[in-house]
Amino acid sequence: MTRAPSFASTLQTYMAARNTSAVTIPVIQPAAPFLDMAGEDLRRRIFLTESETGETLCLRPEFTIPVCLDHIANGSHTPARYAYLGEVFRQRRAGGSEFYQAGIEDLGDVDIASADARSLSEAAAMVRLAAPNAQLEILLGDQTIFEAVLKALGLPRGWRMRLARTFGNAALLKETLTALSGERPLPDLTPDMARLASKGDQAKLAAAIAAEMQSIGFPAHAGRSPEDIALRLIEKTELAAVKLSKKQFAALSEFLAIRESLDTAAEHLQAFSAAAGIKLDGALEAFTRRVDRMATLGLPPSDVTYDAAFGRPLDYYTGLVFEIRQRGTAEPGTKLEGGAQNPALAGGGRYDRLLTLLGAEKPIPGVGFSLWLDRLEALA
Question: What is the three-class DSSP state of 2?
């Protein structure tokens, strides 16, 4: 077992003073929520095992999902703020598989701008408590702004969803944009089915698929239903028919290249939207409110860098994303010596869909962050 760093008690004292409840999460967790909700990178590095009854279990790879599950299971009221400090277990490229994390999960606060700003300012304060002499840089991204740009550019829902899933993965985003800018083959269908798919007539297409399945003796209950197949074929046909215009591609490329101090980012986004002839009103207003709240909490926007292409490689983030690291290190995702990724000292963001996906009866907004205590200890 690893040991907690010397500053762990200082962090616990800070979190207790921030109107949080300390939560204890078992080390052994059901694996399904992580396999379903976590990003592909984390899924590859989880330590799996099996219970006596055959249930797939894992060693706790992070805290956000189990904290949310605990909140749902206990029927706790919101808003609620949970603090944790403990070991997590995952295979890491840089070596080691057991290390400590600390953080705060903030559930149910409907003042999104204030909760976002509080989460980022608390993460920064805790990093500074743990490594007071470190020179830090804070990087902020916003999936809401990214998705608003995609919608304003007129992309159909299927392509918006596909592009949104690439947020934070520069290579995959580039690959998807390249595909969207070129020609793609239509699904291989009979002329009648192709006509129905292009019209979006799901009912008639499903009936045609069911008839075809019956004619070849393929039972309808043996796999996906004709309705599911029809919906997927309509989506594929729609996606194949869409191509980014040069103007759309140029606008999206210009947006993704935005990287500057947060105190001027809102003005840049406003100028970009005006030049591109698109509207980001609601998303941009929320972005500006968050910046204002950060300033009132003592975190100057000039200390934060906004990167329009920056995201976190976890599937459940929906809005704000951020990372704190030592100044002068490589850009996020850059390969370092030995193949290691650029190490974050802290990272987090907003995950408003997560609790519903985990079984909550009604939507519960959430935002939170984690600190990597072994990395901070190396700087202390």
Answer: coil
